[in-house]
Write a structure and sequence with these properties.
This protein has 461 residues and is mainly β. The protein has one domain. It has 2 helices and 30 strands.
Protein backbone atom coordinates (compact mmCIF):
# COMPACT_ATOMS: atom_id res chain seq x y z
CA UNK A 1 0.00 0.00 0.00
CA UNK A 2 1.40 3.38 -0.98
CA UNK A 3 1.33 6.04 1.70
CA UNK A 4 0.31 9.42 0.33
CA UNK A 5 1.93 12.39 2.01
CA UNK A 6 -0.63 15.13 2.53
CA UNK A 7 -0.14 18.80 3.36
CA UNK A 8 -1.77 19.89 6.60
CA UNK A 9 -4.30 22.64 5.93
CA UNK A 10 -4.62 25.31 8.58
CA UNK A 11 -7.65 27.59 8.75
CA UNK A 12 -7.69 31.24 9.69
CA UNK A 13 -8.79 30.50 13.25
CA UNK A 14 -6.26 27.77 13.94
CA UNK A 15 -4.31 27.68 17.16
CA UNK A 16 -0.57 27.48 17.64
CA UNK A 17 1.06 25.23 15.08
CA UNK A 18 3.51 22.62 16.32
CA UNK A 19 5.90 20.77 14.04
CA UNK A 20 5.16 17.08 13.82
CA UNK A 21 7.43 14.90 15.90
CA UNK A 22 7.84 12.28 13.22
CA UNK A 23 10.46 14.20 11.26
CA UNK A 24 12.88 11.72 9.75
CA UNK A 25 15.92 13.66 10.95
CA UNK A 26 16.77 16.23 13.57
CA UNK A 27 15.73 19.77 12.77
CA UNK A 28 17.56 21.37 15.66
CA UNK A 29 21.14 22.61 15.55
CA UNK A 30 23.10 23.19 18.74
CA UNK A 31 22.09 26.75 18.64
CA UNK A 32 20.14 29.77 19.53
CA UNK A 33 23.39 31.66 19.99
CA UNK A 34 27.10 31.42 20.42
CA UNK A 35 29.81 32.56 22.79
CA UNK A 36 30.65 36.18 21.90
CA UNK A 37 33.93 36.42 19.97
CA UNK A 38 37.08 37.86 21.51
CA UNK A 39 37.08 41.64 21.95
CA UNK A 40 38.20 43.48 18.83
CA UNK A 41 39.73 46.52 20.48
CA UNK A 42 42.52 47.13 17.98
CA UNK A 43 41.44 49.82 15.51
CA UNK A 44 42.38 49.07 11.92
CA UNK A 45 44.39 51.73 10.07
CA UNK A 46 42.52 53.08 7.05
CA UNK A 47 45.36 55.05 5.46
CA UNK A 48 46.54 52.21 3.19
CA UNK A 49 44.67 49.58 1.14
CA UNK A 50 44.03 46.36 3.05
CA UNK A 51 45.03 42.85 2.01
CA UNK A 52 46.04 39.61 3.67
CA UNK A 53 44.99 38.84 7.25
CA UNK A 54 42.74 41.52 8.75
CA UNK A 55 41.07 41.56 12.17
CA UNK A 56 40.10 44.14 14.73
CA UNK A 57 37.71 47.07 14.52
CA UNK A 58 36.90 49.32 11.59
CA UNK A 59 36.12 52.61 13.31
CA UNK A 60 32.78 54.39 13.00
CA UNK A 61 32.45 56.68 10.01
CA UNK A 62 35.74 55.62 8.40
CA UNK A 63 36.31 54.45 4.83
CA UNK A 64 38.55 51.44 4.15
CA UNK A 65 39.78 50.29 0.76
CA UNK A 66 40.78 46.76 -0.24
CA UNK A 67 43.97 46.26 -2.22
CA UNK A 68 43.49 42.50 -2.54
CA UNK A 69 41.73 39.62 -0.82
CA UNK A 70 41.43 39.94 2.94
CA UNK A 71 41.09 37.05 5.40
CA UNK A 72 39.70 37.10 8.93
CA UNK A 73 41.80 34.36 10.59
CA UNK A 74 40.17 31.56 12.57
CA UNK A 75 39.70 32.65 16.17
CA UNK A 76 39.78 36.35 15.23
CA UNK A 77 36.98 38.83 14.57
CA UNK A 78 36.46 41.68 12.13
CA UNK A 79 33.98 44.23 13.48
CA UNK A 80 32.56 47.16 11.53
CA UNK A 81 31.20 49.95 13.69
CA UNK A 82 28.41 52.14 12.30
CA UNK A 83 28.91 54.32 9.24
CA UNK A 84 31.82 52.26 7.88
CA UNK A 85 32.41 51.97 4.13
CA UNK A 86 34.54 49.20 2.62
CA UNK A 87 35.44 50.08 -0.97
CA UNK A 88 36.32 47.16 -3.22
CA UNK A 89 37.96 48.44 -6.43
CA UNK A 90 38.80 45.02 -7.90
CA UNK A 91 37.74 41.40 -8.01
CA UNK A 92 38.70 40.75 -4.41
CA UNK A 93 37.31 38.45 -1.76
CA UNK A 94 36.46 38.82 1.91
CA UNK A 95 37.31 35.42 3.39
CA UNK A 96 36.03 34.74 6.89
CA UNK A 97 37.57 31.92 8.91
CA UNK A 98 36.83 33.65 12.22
CA UNK A 99 33.84 35.93 12.92
CA UNK A 100 32.40 38.84 10.93
CA UNK A 101 30.27 41.53 12.56
CA UNK A 102 28.87 44.58 10.72
CA UNK A 103 27.00 46.88 13.10
CA UNK A 104 25.47 49.52 10.89
CA UNK A 105 22.52 51.48 12.23
CA UNK A 106 19.42 52.99 10.69
CA UNK A 107 20.95 56.48 10.85
CA UNK A 108 24.50 55.37 9.96
CA UNK A 109 24.38 52.26 7.74
CA UNK A 110 27.50 50.48 6.55
CA UNK A 111 28.47 49.98 2.90
CA UNK A 112 30.45 47.12 1.33
CA UNK A 113 30.61 48.14 -2.29
CA UNK A 114 32.74 48.89 -5.34
CA UNK A 115 30.90 52.22 -5.46
CA UNK A 116 29.13 51.41 -8.72
CA UNK A 117 26.11 53.54 -9.60
CA UNK A 118 22.72 51.86 -9.37
CA UNK A 119 20.67 51.65 -12.55
CA UNK A 120 17.15 51.68 -11.21
CA UNK A 121 14.80 51.95 -14.14
CA UNK A 122 12.92 49.39 -16.23
CA UNK A 123 14.93 47.86 -19.06
CA UNK A 124 13.70 47.24 -22.55
CA UNK A 125 14.29 43.50 -22.16
CA UNK A 126 16.01 40.87 -20.05
CA UNK A 127 18.81 40.74 -22.63
CA UNK A 128 19.36 44.48 -22.24
CA UNK A 129 19.46 44.13 -18.46
CA UNK A 130 22.01 41.29 -18.51
CA UNK A 131 24.18 43.20 -20.98
CA UNK A 132 24.19 46.67 -19.47
CA UNK A 133 23.27 46.54 -15.78
CA UNK A 134 26.39 46.38 -13.56
CA UNK A 135 24.30 44.57 -10.93
CA UNK A 136 24.78 41.41 -12.99
CA UNK A 137 28.47 41.77 -13.89
CA UNK A 138 30.21 40.78 -10.63
CA UNK A 139 32.57 43.63 -9.75
CA UNK A 140 34.08 41.70 -6.81
CA UNK A 141 33.68 38.26 -5.27
CA UNK A 142 31.73 38.26 -2.00
CA UNK A 143 31.97 37.39 1.69
CA UNK A 144 32.90 33.72 1.77
CA UNK A 145 32.79 32.12 5.22
CA UNK A 146 34.73 28.94 5.85
CA UNK A 147 33.37 26.11 8.00
CA UNK A 148 35.30 27.60 10.95
CA UNK A 149 33.26 30.83 10.91
CA UNK A 150 31.11 30.58 14.03
CA UNK A 151 29.41 33.97 13.87
CA UNK A 152 28.19 36.15 11.02
CA UNK A 153 26.27 39.29 11.97
CA UNK A 154 25.20 41.93 9.45
CA UNK A 155 22.90 44.78 10.51
CA UNK A 156 21.87 47.86 8.51
CA UNK A 157 24.45 47.22 5.80
CA UNK A 158 24.45 47.79 2.03
CA UNK A 159 26.12 44.83 0.29
CA UNK A 160 26.39 45.39 -3.45
CA UNK A 161 27.57 44.26 -6.91
CA UNK A 162 29.33 40.98 -6.02
CA UNK A 163 29.51 37.67 -7.81
CA UNK A 164 32.80 37.69 -9.74
CA UNK A 165 34.20 34.36 -10.95
CA UNK A 166 36.74 32.75 -8.64
CA UNK A 167 40.28 32.37 -9.92
CA UNK A 168 40.80 29.80 -7.18
CA UNK A 169 38.46 28.45 -4.54
CA UNK A 170 38.79 30.63 -1.41
CA UNK A 171 37.13 28.27 1.11
CA UNK A 172 35.60 24.81 1.35
CA UNK A 173 32.31 24.65 -0.52
CA UNK A 174 33.48 26.87 -3.40
CA UNK A 175 34.88 25.94 -6.79
CA UNK A 176 37.42 27.67 -9.00
CA UNK A 177 35.92 29.04 -12.21
CA UNK A 178 32.43 29.51 -10.73
CA UNK A 179 30.69 32.68 -9.62
CA UNK A 180 30.91 33.74 -5.99
CA UNK A 181 27.80 34.19 -3.92
CA UNK A 182 27.50 37.54 -2.18
CA UNK A 183 27.47 35.69 1.14
CA UNK A 184 28.33 32.06 1.85
CA UNK A 185 27.83 30.63 5.36
CA UNK A 186 28.42 26.98 6.25
CA UNK A 187 29.02 26.23 9.94
CA UNK A 188 26.63 23.56 11.31
CA UNK A 189 26.74 25.02 14.82
CA UNK A 190 27.30 28.61 13.80
CA UNK A 191 25.02 31.65 13.95
CA UNK A 192 24.03 33.68 10.90
CA UNK A 193 22.10 36.91 11.40
CA UNK A 194 21.25 39.16 8.43
CA UNK A 195 18.82 41.92 9.29
CA UNK A 196 17.64 45.35 8.11
CA UNK A 197 20.17 45.29 5.26
CA UNK A 198 20.12 45.98 1.52
CA UNK A 199 21.45 43.27 -0.81
CA UNK A 200 21.82 44.55 -4.35
CA UNK A 201 22.97 42.68 -7.45
CA UNK A 202 24.68 39.32 -7.88
CA UNK A 203 25.49 36.87 -10.65
CA UNK A 204 24.26 33.77 -8.80
CA UNK A 205 22.71 33.34 -5.34
CA UNK A 206 22.90 36.45 -3.21
CA UNK A 207 22.92 34.42 0.02
CA UNK A 208 23.83 30.72 0.16
CA UNK A 209 23.59 28.98 3.53
CA UNK A 210 24.57 25.37 4.07
CA UNK A 211 24.23 24.55 7.78
CA UNK A 212 23.73 26.87 10.71
CA UNK A 213 21.20 28.67 12.89
CA UNK A 214 19.82 31.62 10.95
CA UNK A 215 17.79 34.77 11.25
CA UNK A 216 17.18 36.56 7.92
CA UNK A 217 14.79 39.36 8.74
CA UNK A 218 13.58 42.74 7.42
CA UNK A 219 16.03 42.98 4.50
CA UNK A 220 15.58 44.23 0.94
CA UNK A 221 16.92 42.08 -1.91
CA UNK A 222 17.13 43.56 -5.41
CA UNK A 223 18.39 42.04 -8.67
CA UNK A 224 19.67 38.77 -7.21
CA UNK A 225 21.19 36.58 -9.91
CA UNK A 226 21.91 37.28 -13.56
CA UNK A 227 20.35 34.37 -15.47
CA UNK A 228 20.33 32.01 -12.48
CA UNK A 229 20.35 32.16 -8.70
CA UNK A 230 18.09 32.87 -5.76
CA UNK A 231 18.06 35.71 -3.28
CA UNK A 232 18.22 33.37 -0.27
CA UNK A 233 19.10 29.72 -0.92
CA UNK A 234 19.20 27.52 2.18
CA UNK A 235 20.32 23.91 2.20
CA UNK A 236 20.51 20.92 4.53
CA UNK A 237 21.49 21.71 8.11
CA UNK A 238 19.97 25.21 8.00
CA UNK A 239 17.41 26.00 10.72
CA UNK A 240 15.71 29.31 11.46
CA UNK A 241 13.54 32.16 10.21
CA UNK A 242 13.24 34.11 6.94
CA UNK A 243 10.72 36.88 7.52
CA UNK A 244 9.70 40.44 6.65
CA UNK A 245 12.03 40.62 3.66
CA UNK A 246 11.29 42.34 0.35
CA UNK A 247 12.43 40.49 -2.78
CA UNK A 248 12.31 42.38 -6.09
CA UNK A 249 13.51 40.97 -9.40
CA UNK A 250 15.19 37.76 -8.25
CA UNK A 251 16.46 35.75 -11.23
CA UNK A 252 14.88 32.56 -9.91
CA UNK A 253 13.23 32.43 -6.48
CA UNK A 254 13.24 34.94 -3.70
CA UNK A 255 13.47 32.05 -1.22
CA UNK A 256 14.57 28.49 -1.92
CA UNK A 257 14.32 25.93 0.88
CA UNK A 258 15.98 22.62 0.10
CA UNK A 259 17.41 19.73 2.08
CA UNK A 260 20.06 19.11 -0.57
CA UNK A 261 23.30 17.87 0.98
CA UNK A 262 22.49 15.14 3.46
CA UNK A 263 23.37 15.88 7.10
CA UNK A 264 21.90 14.73 10.43
CA UNK A 265 20.10 18.09 10.59
CA UNK A 266 17.12 18.59 8.29
CA UNK A 267 16.64 21.97 6.68
CA UNK A 268 13.78 23.60 8.61
CA UNK A 269 12.64 27.16 7.92
CA UNK A 270 9.79 29.38 9.04
CA UNK A 271 9.22 31.64 6.03
CA UNK A 272 6.62 34.30 6.78
CA UNK A 273 5.48 37.85 6.06
CA UNK A 274 7.73 38.34 3.04
CA UNK A 275 6.90 40.39 -0.06
CA UNK A 276 7.91 38.97 -3.47
CA UNK A 277 7.66 41.17 -6.57
CA UNK A 278 8.52 40.45 -10.22
CA UNK A 279 10.69 37.39 -9.48
CA UNK A 280 11.61 34.45 -11.72
CA UNK A 281 12.07 35.96 -15.17
CA UNK A 282 15.85 35.87 -15.73
CA UNK A 283 16.15 32.15 -15.01
CA UNK A 284 17.51 30.72 -18.29
CA UNK A 285 16.15 27.23 -17.60
CA UNK A 286 12.82 26.41 -19.22
CA UNK A 287 11.70 24.40 -16.20
CA UNK A 288 9.05 25.96 -13.96
CA UNK A 289 11.14 26.65 -10.89
CA UNK A 290 11.58 30.41 -11.03
CA UNK A 291 9.39 32.59 -8.85
CA UNK A 292 8.74 33.39 -5.25
CA UNK A 293 9.01 30.50 -2.75
CA UNK A 294 10.34 27.04 -3.58
CA UNK A 295 10.25 24.13 -1.09
CA UNK A 296 11.90 20.93 -2.31
CA UNK A 297 14.18 17.92 -1.69
CA UNK A 298 12.87 16.93 1.75
CA UNK A 299 13.07 20.49 3.03
CA UNK A 300 10.71 21.27 5.92
CA UNK A 301 9.00 24.63 6.38
CA UNK A 302 6.16 26.73 7.69
CA UNK A 303 5.20 29.19 4.94
CA UNK A 304 2.59 31.79 5.88
CA UNK A 305 1.47 35.39 5.32
CA UNK A 306 3.52 35.99 2.16
CA UNK A 307 2.53 38.53 -0.49
CA UNK A 308 3.37 37.39 -4.03
CA UNK A 309 2.99 39.91 -6.85
CA UNK A 310 3.63 39.27 -10.57
CA UNK A 311 6.07 36.42 -9.96
CA UNK A 312 6.59 33.84 -12.70
CA UNK A 313 5.68 31.04 -10.30
CA UNK A 314 3.68 31.55 -7.13
CA UNK A 315 3.75 28.97 -4.35
CA UNK A 316 5.84 25.95 -5.38
CA UNK A 317 5.84 22.88 -3.13
CA UNK A 318 7.72 20.19 -5.02
CA UNK A 319 6.69 16.54 -4.71
CA UNK A 320 10.01 15.79 -3.00
CA UNK A 321 9.40 18.25 -0.12
CA UNK A 322 8.84 16.96 3.42
CA UNK A 323 5.11 17.60 3.32
CA UNK A 324 4.45 15.47 6.41
CA UNK A 325 6.23 18.05 8.53
CA UNK A 326 5.49 21.21 6.59
CA UNK A 327 2.56 23.60 6.71
CA UNK A 328 1.56 26.60 4.65
CA UNK A 329 -1.32 28.93 3.97
CA UNK A 330 -2.50 32.55 4.04
CA UNK A 331 -0.73 33.34 0.77
CA UNK A 332 -1.81 36.43 -1.19
CA UNK A 333 -1.43 36.32 -4.98
CA UNK A 334 -1.67 39.08 -7.58
CA UNK A 335 -0.97 38.86 -11.33
CA UNK A 336 -1.13 41.21 -14.31
CA UNK A 337 -1.23 38.50 -16.96
CA UNK A 338 -2.90 35.16 -17.43
CA UNK A 339 0.54 33.55 -17.48
CA UNK A 340 1.11 34.75 -13.92
CA UNK A 341 -2.39 33.88 -12.70
CA UNK A 342 -2.08 30.41 -14.25
CA UNK A 343 0.88 29.72 -11.93
CA UNK A 344 -0.35 31.06 -8.58
CA UNK A 345 -0.10 27.37 -7.73
CA UNK A 346 2.75 25.79 -9.68
CA UNK A 347 1.74 23.40 -12.41
CA UNK A 348 3.22 19.90 -12.13
CA UNK A 349 3.97 20.09 -8.41
CA UNK A 350 2.36 19.19 -5.08
CA UNK A 351 1.15 22.64 -4.05
CA UNK A 352 -2.24 22.34 -2.36
CA UNK A 353 -4.44 25.45 -2.56
CA UNK A 354 -5.45 26.53 0.95
CA UNK A 355 -8.80 27.92 2.03
CA UNK A 356 -6.92 30.73 3.80
CA UNK A 357 -5.28 31.94 0.56
CA UNK A 358 -6.37 35.08 -1.28
CA UNK A 359 -8.06 35.16 -3.68
CA UNK A 360 -10.01 32.19 -2.35
CA UNK A 361 -9.00 29.27 -4.62
CA UNK A 362 -12.53 27.92 -4.99
CA UNK A 363 -13.59 31.11 -6.78
CA UNK A 364 -11.42 30.39 -9.82
CA UNK A 365 -10.10 26.82 -9.70
CA UNK A 366 -12.28 24.27 -11.51
CA UNK A 367 -14.41 21.78 -9.66
CA UNK A 368 -12.36 18.65 -9.08
CA UNK A 369 -9.05 20.52 -9.35
CA UNK A 370 -6.09 18.25 -8.58
CA UNK A 371 -2.91 19.83 -7.16
CA UNK A 372 -0.36 20.30 -9.92
CA UNK A 373 -2.95 20.40 -12.71
CA UNK A 374 -3.10 23.31 -15.12
CA UNK A 375 -6.03 25.71 -14.82
CA UNK A 376 -7.27 28.97 -16.33
CA UNK A 377 -6.56 31.99 -14.14
CA UNK A 378 -7.98 34.58 -16.55
CA UNK A 379 -10.67 35.64 -14.08
CA UNK A 380 -8.00 36.81 -11.59
CA UNK A 381 -5.85 38.93 -13.92
CA UNK A 382 -5.47 42.43 -12.45
CA UNK A 383 -7.83 41.63 -9.58
CA UNK A 384 -7.26 42.20 -5.85
CA UNK A 385 -4.39 44.65 -6.02
CA UNK A 386 -2.63 44.82 -2.61
CA UNK A 387 -2.65 48.62 -3.00
CA UNK A 388 0.97 49.53 -2.32
CA UNK A 389 1.67 53.12 -1.35
CA UNK A 390 3.62 54.16 -4.46
CA UNK A 391 4.10 51.04 -6.60
CA UNK A 392 1.34 51.27 -9.18
CA UNK A 393 -0.59 48.20 -10.26
CA UNK A 394 -1.51 47.00 -12.82
CA UNK A 395 1.98 46.92 -14.33
CA UNK A 396 2.28 44.90 -17.52
CA UNK A 397 6.04 45.60 -17.69
CA UNK A 398 6.66 43.50 -14.57
CA UNK A 399 9.39 41.39 -16.24
CA UNK A 400 11.69 44.41 -16.53
CA UNK A 401 11.14 46.09 -13.16
CA UNK A 402 13.79 44.73 -10.80
CA UNK A 403 14.45 47.48 -8.24
CA UNK A 404 12.86 48.54 -4.96
CA UNK A 405 14.31 52.04 -4.69
CA UNK A 406 11.81 54.74 -5.55
CA UNK A 407 8.86 52.62 -4.43
CA UNK A 408 6.98 52.28 -1.17
CA UNK A 409 5.60 48.79 -0.60
CA UNK A 410 3.66 49.67 2.54
CA UNK A 411 -0.05 48.87 2.23
CA UNK A 412 -2.51 51.70 1.80
CA UNK A 413 -5.35 51.99 4.27
CA UNK A 414 -8.14 49.78 3.01
CA UNK A 415 -5.84 47.32 1.21
CA UNK A 416 -7.42 43.88 0.91
CA UNK A 417 -4.07 42.45 2.08
CA UNK A 418 -4.62 43.91 5.56
CA UNK A 419 -5.87 41.33 8.05
CA UNK A 420 -5.51 38.34 5.72
CA UNK A 421 -2.62 36.79 7.64
CA UNK A 422 -2.41 34.46 10.62
CA UNK A 423 -0.39 34.70 13.81
CA UNK A 424 -1.18 31.16 14.93
CA UNK A 425 2.44 30.01 14.86
CA UNK A 426 5.76 31.11 16.30
CA UNK A 427 9.21 31.82 14.84
CA UNK A 428 11.82 29.15 15.34
CA UNK A 429 14.00 31.88 16.91
CA UNK A 430 17.28 29.98 16.56
CA UNK A 431 19.39 33.13 17.02
CA UNK A 432 19.50 34.77 20.43
CA UNK A 433 18.59 38.42 20.80
CA UNK A 434 21.72 40.50 21.38
CA UNK A 435 22.64 44.02 20.15
CA UNK A 436 26.05 42.90 18.88
CA UNK A 437 26.28 39.11 18.76
CA UNK A 438 22.74 38.10 17.77
CA UNK A 439 19.43 39.36 16.44
CA UNK A 440 18.32 42.86 17.32
CA UNK A 441 14.72 41.64 17.25
CA UNK A 442 12.84 38.49 16.25
CA UNK A 443 9.73 40.03 14.71
CA UNK A 444 6.67 37.90 15.37
CA UNK A 445 4.19 36.92 12.63
CA UNK A 446 1.84 39.73 11.58
CA UNK A 447 -1.81 39.74 10.56
CA UNK A 448 -1.20 41.78 7.41
CA UNK A 449 0.18 40.12 4.30
CA UNK A 450 3.78 40.78 3.38
CA UNK A 451 6.73 42.62 4.90
CA UNK A 452 4.99 45.80 6.10
CA UNK A 453 2.45 45.83 8.87
CA UNK A 454 -0.16 48.54 9.32
CA UNK A 455 0.80 48.79 13.01
CA UNK A 456 4.29 49.94 12.02
CA UNK A 457 6.15 46.69 12.61
CA UNK A 458 7.96 44.64 10.01
CA UNK A 459 10.41 45.86 7.37
CA UNK A 460 11.90 49.24 8.24
CA UNK A 461 13.10 50.30 4.78
Amino acid sequence: MIQVRKMQIVGAAAGLLILASCSKSSNNNNGGGTTPPPPTVATIDNTNPLSGNVSGTMAAGKTYTLGGDITVPAGDTLTLQSGVTIKIPGKYDIIVKGSFISLGTQTAPNFITPGTTHQDQPFASITAALTSDPAFQGAWDGINCDTTCKLFIMKWTHLEFGGATFGQAPVAGTTAGTASWLILFQNPNGVFDLEDSWIYGSTDDAVRITYGNINVMRNTFEKSGSNTGESVNVKSGTVGDIAYNVFVGSATNGTKISNAGATPVECNIHCYNNTYIDCGYRQSSTSGHGGSINLEKDGEAYIYDNLIVNCKIGMRIVNTADTLNSQYGNSYFYGDSVQVADEFYSVGDATHPQTTDYPVPSTYLPVGYVPGASYDGTAEVGKNSPAFKTFTLPNTNYVNVNNASGFDFHLNTGSTAIGKGTTAFAPLAKVKVDPNYGATEITLPGVDMGAYQSNGTGNKH
